Amino acid sequence: RTEGGPHAGGARLTLEDIEAVVEEVPNIETWDPVQLIPAREVRYGDRNATLRIWAYSERSESVWNRSVSRGDYFDAAQVDRSSRVALIGEVAAEELFGDDDPLGAQIHIGPVPFRVIGSLDPVTDADTYLEPLMCPFVRSCFDLAIKREFEFTSGMVWPHSCDNIQKTFDIWKH
User: Fold this and answer.
1) What is the pTM of this model?
2) How many CA atoms lie within 13 A of 60 on its CB side?
Protein backbone atom coordinates (compact mmCIF):
# COMPACT_ATOMS: atom_id res chain seq x y z
CA ARG A 1 0.00 0.00 0.00
CA THR A 2 1.33 3.43 -0.89
CA GLU A 3 0.26 6.86 0.25
CA GLY A 4 0.04 9.95 -1.92
CA GLY A 5 -0.31 10.48 -5.65
CA PRO A 6 1.47 8.97 -8.63
CA HIS A 7 5.20 8.58 -8.22
CA ALA A 8 7.81 9.84 -10.65
CA GLY A 9 8.31 7.39 -13.46
CA GLY A 10 5.01 5.63 -12.74
CA ALA A 11 2.86 4.51 -15.66
CA ARG A 12 -0.29 6.47 -16.42
CA LEU A 13 -3.37 5.20 -18.18
CA THR A 14 -4.01 6.55 -21.65
CA LEU A 15 -7.37 6.84 -23.38
CA GLU A 16 -6.30 3.87 -25.51
CA ASP A 17 -5.64 1.84 -22.34
CA ILE A 18 -9.13 2.62 -21.02
CA GLU A 19 -10.73 1.79 -24.37
CA ALA A 20 -8.88 -1.57 -24.39
CA VAL A 21 -10.16 -2.36 -20.88
CA VAL A 22 -13.72 -1.45 -21.91
CA GLU A 23 -13.43 -3.75 -24.91
CA GLU A 24 -12.15 -6.69 -22.83
CA VAL A 25 -14.22 -6.38 -19.66
CA PRO A 26 -17.90 -7.24 -20.05
CA ASN A 27 -20.71 -4.98 -18.84
CA ILE A 28 -18.86 -1.66 -18.73
CA GLU A 29 -21.60 0.65 -19.86
CA THR A 30 -19.81 3.97 -19.70
CA TRP A 31 -16.63 5.59 -18.46
CA ASP A 32 -15.12 9.01 -18.11
CA PRO A 33 -11.44 9.95 -18.13
CA VAL A 34 -10.56 12.55 -15.53
CA GLN A 35 -7.46 14.71 -15.38
CA LEU A 36 -6.56 16.84 -12.39
CA ILE A 37 -4.58 19.99 -12.94
CA PRO A 38 -3.44 21.02 -9.46
CA ALA A 39 -3.45 24.55 -8.09
CA ARG A 40 -3.79 26.98 -10.97
CA GLU A 41 -4.53 30.66 -10.78
CA VAL A 42 -7.99 31.41 -12.13
CA ARG A 43 -8.93 35.02 -12.79
CA TYR A 44 -12.12 36.93 -13.41
CA GLY A 45 -11.61 40.66 -13.82
CA ASP A 46 -9.56 41.83 -10.84
CA ARG A 47 -10.38 38.78 -8.70
CA ASN A 48 -8.32 35.62 -8.62
CA ALA A 49 -8.28 32.31 -6.80
CA THR A 50 -5.97 29.33 -6.76
CA LEU A 51 -8.13 26.38 -7.72
CA ARG A 52 -7.85 22.76 -8.77
CA ILE A 53 -8.96 22.27 -12.35
CA TRP A 54 -10.74 19.04 -13.26
CA ALA A 55 -10.84 18.05 -16.93
CA TYR A 56 -13.63 15.65 -17.91
CA SER A 57 -15.15 14.27 -21.08
CA GLU A 58 -18.68 14.84 -22.31
CA ARG A 59 -19.59 11.57 -20.56
CA SER A 60 -19.01 13.06 -17.11
CA GLU A 61 -22.56 14.29 -16.61
CA SER A 62 -24.00 10.78 -16.94
CA VAL A 63 -21.08 8.89 -15.36
CA TRP A 64 -20.88 11.08 -12.25
CA ASN A 65 -24.57 12.00 -12.30
CA ARG A 66 -23.73 15.59 -11.51
CA SER A 67 -25.47 18.12 -13.63
CA VAL A 68 -25.62 21.87 -13.73
CA SER A 69 -28.03 23.87 -11.64
CA ARG A 70 -27.85 26.71 -14.17
CA GLY A 71 -26.63 26.99 -17.73
CA ASP A 72 -25.48 24.14 -19.96
CA TYR A 73 -23.19 21.13 -19.68
CA PHE A 74 -20.53 20.79 -22.36
CA ASP A 75 -21.12 18.29 -25.16
CA ALA A 76 -19.08 15.94 -27.37
CA ALA A 77 -18.64 18.55 -30.10
CA GLN A 78 -17.16 21.02 -27.61
CA VAL A 79 -14.81 18.33 -26.27
CA ASP A 80 -13.77 17.25 -29.79
CA ARG A 81 -13.03 20.88 -30.74
CA SER A 82 -11.22 21.53 -27.43
CA SER A 83 -13.60 24.44 -26.95
CA ARG A 84 -12.57 26.77 -24.19
CA VAL A 85 -15.66 26.36 -22.05
CA ALA A 86 -15.91 25.77 -18.32
CA LEU A 87 -18.32 24.58 -15.68
CA ILE A 88 -17.87 26.26 -12.33
CA GLY A 89 -18.48 24.89 -8.86
CA GLU A 90 -20.08 26.75 -6.00
CA VAL A 91 -16.84 27.55 -4.13
CA ALA A 92 -15.06 28.85 -7.23
CA ALA A 93 -18.13 30.89 -8.21
CA GLU A 94 -18.26 32.51 -4.80
CA GLU A 95 -14.54 33.28 -4.72
CA LEU A 96 -14.37 34.69 -8.24
CA PHE A 97 -17.79 36.24 -8.78
CA GLY A 98 -19.23 37.06 -5.38
CA ASP A 99 -22.78 38.19 -6.20
CA ASP A 100 -22.10 38.49 -9.96
CA ASP A 101 -23.60 35.91 -12.32
CA PRO A 102 -20.83 33.63 -13.68
CA LEU A 103 -22.81 32.39 -16.71
CA GLY A 104 -21.35 33.71 -19.94
CA ALA A 105 -18.43 35.34 -18.14
CA GLN A 106 -14.87 34.92 -19.32
CA ILE A 107 -12.36 33.53 -16.84
CA HIS A 108 -8.67 32.92 -17.35
CA ILE A 109 -6.98 29.72 -16.24
CA GLY A 110 -3.41 30.87 -16.28
CA PRO A 111 -3.21 32.90 -19.50
CA VAL A 112 -5.93 30.91 -21.33
CA PRO A 113 -9.47 32.36 -21.59
CA PHE A 114 -12.54 30.16 -21.00
CA ARG A 115 -16.25 31.02 -21.13
CA VAL A 116 -18.36 29.81 -18.19
CA ILE A 117 -21.32 27.90 -19.61
CA GLY A 118 -22.73 26.27 -16.47
CA SER A 119 -22.80 26.18 -12.67
CA LEU A 120 -22.45 22.67 -11.21
CA ASP A 121 -25.00 21.28 -8.79
CA PRO A 122 -23.69 21.78 -5.25
CA VAL A 123 -22.28 19.00 -3.09
CA THR A 124 -24.56 18.69 -0.07
CA ASP A 125 -24.69 15.42 1.89
CA ALA A 126 -20.97 14.58 1.80
CA ASP A 127 -20.16 17.58 3.98
CA THR A 128 -21.72 15.70 6.90
CA TYR A 129 -18.85 13.19 6.70
CA LEU A 130 -15.99 14.96 4.94
CA GLU A 131 -14.16 18.21 5.45
CA PRO A 132 -15.26 20.93 3.01
CA LEU A 133 -11.56 21.50 2.25
CA MET A 134 -11.27 17.98 0.86
CA CYS A 135 -10.79 17.49 -2.85
CA PRO A 136 -14.01 18.43 -4.72
CA PHE A 137 -13.87 15.33 -6.91
CA VAL A 138 -13.79 12.99 -3.91
CA ARG A 139 -16.51 15.01 -2.12
CA SER A 140 -18.70 14.90 -5.22
CA CYS A 141 -18.31 11.12 -5.67
CA PHE A 142 -18.99 10.48 -1.99
CA ASP A 143 -22.00 12.81 -2.12
CA LEU A 144 -23.47 10.84 -5.03
CA ALA A 145 -22.83 7.55 -3.24
CA ILE A 146 -24.63 8.77 -0.12
CA LYS A 147 -27.56 9.83 -2.29
CA ARG A 148 -27.55 6.31 -3.80
CA GLU A 149 -26.86 7.64 -7.28
CA PHE A 150 -24.45 4.76 -7.99
CA GLU A 151 -27.05 2.02 -7.39
CA PHE A 152 -26.80 1.01 -11.05
CA THR A 153 -23.23 -0.16 -10.56
CA SER A 154 -22.14 -3.60 -9.50
CA GLY A 155 -18.64 -2.33 -8.81
CA MET A 156 -16.19 0.50 -9.28
CA VAL A 157 -12.47 0.69 -9.93
CA TRP A 158 -10.73 3.34 -7.83
CA PRO A 159 -7.02 3.80 -8.37
CA HIS A 160 -5.00 4.84 -5.38
CA SER A 161 -4.24 8.27 -6.72
CA CYS A 162 -4.35 10.31 -3.53
CA ASP A 163 -4.82 10.11 0.22
CA ASN A 164 -8.32 11.63 -0.08
CA ILE A 165 -9.55 8.71 -2.20
CA GLN A 166 -7.95 6.19 0.18
CA LYS A 167 -9.46 7.81 3.28
CA THR A 168 -12.88 8.08 1.63
CA PHE A 169 -12.70 4.39 0.71
CA ASP A 170 -11.98 3.65 4.39
CA ILE A 171 -15.09 5.66 5.40
CA TRP A 172 -17.14 3.89 2.73
CA LYS A 173 -16.18 0.45 4.06
CA HIS A 174 -17.71 1.31 7.43
Assistant:
1) 0.70
2) 21
